[in-house]
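Technical annex B. To support the medicinal chemistry partners, we prepared a structural model of the target in complex with NAP, based solely on the information shown next.
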Amino acid sequence: MSDSATRTPLVPPSTVVLVSGGSRGLGLAIVTDLLSAGLKVAAFARTVTPELAKLADTEPQRCYVDSVDVTDLAATQVFVRAAEDRLGPIDGLVNNAAVGQDSLHVHTATADIARIIETNLTAPLQLTRLVVRRMLAQGRRGRIVNVTSICAQRGFPGLVAYSATKGGMDAATRSLARELGGRMLVNAVAPGFFASEMSAVLGQTQLDQIVRRTPTGHLTAPEEVVPVVRMLLRDQTNINGQAIVVDGAASI
Ligand SMILES: NC(=O)c1ccc[n+]([C@@H]2O[C@H](COP(=O)([O-])OP(=O)(O)OC[C@H]3O[C@@H](n4cnc5c(N)ncnc54)[C@H](OP(=O)(O)O)[C@@H]3O)[C@@H](O)[C@H]2O)c1
């Protein structure tokens, strides 16, 4: 039998993508980029910012947004159904929503550890299960991109629980890629530090130190991460189960 006769059919490019945490920062940059590339995008966050609302107002047939807490499983189910009614079946998921941390582990309250794990690990696993179940039930193939962090691979003080969640998502990426047996491409993008509300807790000394350690001489910009996310959603590659670091070699 020829090789092509036994090969799993290729996963087509995503056309309708759900982006969690699309209201600002990297998530908003991903939503904007995917819309510019002609895709349909459903995005949520707890608060729909004016920037995200404007995208949905400008492109009502291609962009659906709402206010949803990713930790509220029932609310994410309602959102996914409403988004599919408006845009068509979701065949791409970007797990981007997350909360940061700014406390040494010994000073981090139990409730804060639980909130970070629930938002950054439990919720994206549940959202992924929801979306993958629908894709499988409808016989569709798709792509999943988990936004993790260089903190999953390298240590950073003040980010112990956060790093644990991102390492968990990197690990889940590998196992899900194997579990889905090529019916979907599952990857992670692990950015280095970039300027956003989340990283605003870093002081200038820490930022200067990161830049000094970075061979490309600057902090990663969201615009330098976005093309990698788009590539994983759109391009015909055999990349599967990988965590792609985008940090200018700061961590090498
Ligand atoms: N900034 C960095 O240096 C850096 C580095 C590496 C990786 N990352 C990762 O990149 C991704 C984006 O980070 P960012 O820096 O762009 O962060 P950001 O500006 O704080 O944006 C986070 C997004 O997630 C949403 N979000 C947070 N909690 C949520 C919840 N419970 N339910 C729904 N949405 C929620 C936020 O909206 P609401 O608050 O309105 O819900 C917002 O849209 C994250 O996964 C982060 O871990 C960031």
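Notes passed to the chemistry partners:
The longest helix spans residues 110-137.
The mean pLDDT is 96.
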